[in-house]
Design brief:
This protein is mainly alpha-helical and 153 residues long. The chain is built from six helices and no strands. It starts with a helix and ends in a 6-residue tail after the last helix.
Length: 153
């Protein structure tokens, strides 16, 4: 009789371990799916931010040169204020993109934000000036530039 209870207990333990293994596998699968969704959502949010800033540039095409045409900041006045504020918004966006890219394993391999940050450094002295004025505001962006001193997009 004792052997029968021992066999029943052993079967129960084995069944419990099999169910636990199945649950672990399902949890791993669900975590992978959730990470993928979180990565896609973060990428979408970053692109939405970028598109928002780009709408200001599209509305006033003369601003394009400050972002991608190698033009320095305007000397003073309303134009300087407007360009500096848009550059700060763009720096926030790029910093966010770099941060999210590094945090999420599903998109970590994407070089889009890294390449874009280097492109901006190469094509926009105005952007570089604004970021270098307060590098502590854009920690990820400043760190990325420091880690890639000779690389430009």
């Amino acid at each position: 009789m004792g052997d029968l209870f021992g066999v029943i207990a052993s079967v129960g333990v084995v069944a419990s371990l099999l169910v636990s293994a199945w649950q672990t596998r399902e949890l791993t699968r669900q975590t992978t799916i959730n990470n993928g969704i979180a990565g896609a959502t973060a990428r979408y949010n970053g692109l939405e931010r970028l598109h928002y800033v780009e709408t200001f540039i599209a509305a006033e095409p003369e601003l394009h040169a400050y972002f991608y045409g190698g033009v320095e900041l305007p000397a003073d006045g309303i134009e300087r204020w407007r360009v500096v504020n848009l550059l700060r918004m763009l720096a926030d966006t790029v910093d966010y993109g770099l941060m999210v890219n590094e945090l999420n394993p599903e998109i970590r391999s994407s070089d889009g934000w890294r390449d874009y940050a280097l492109l901006l450094r190469a094509s926009s002295p105005a952007f570089v000036h604004v970021v270098n004025e307060h590098p502590e505001w854009w920690v990820e962006l400043s760190a990325h530039w420091a880690a890639n001193p000779g690389a430009d997009g």
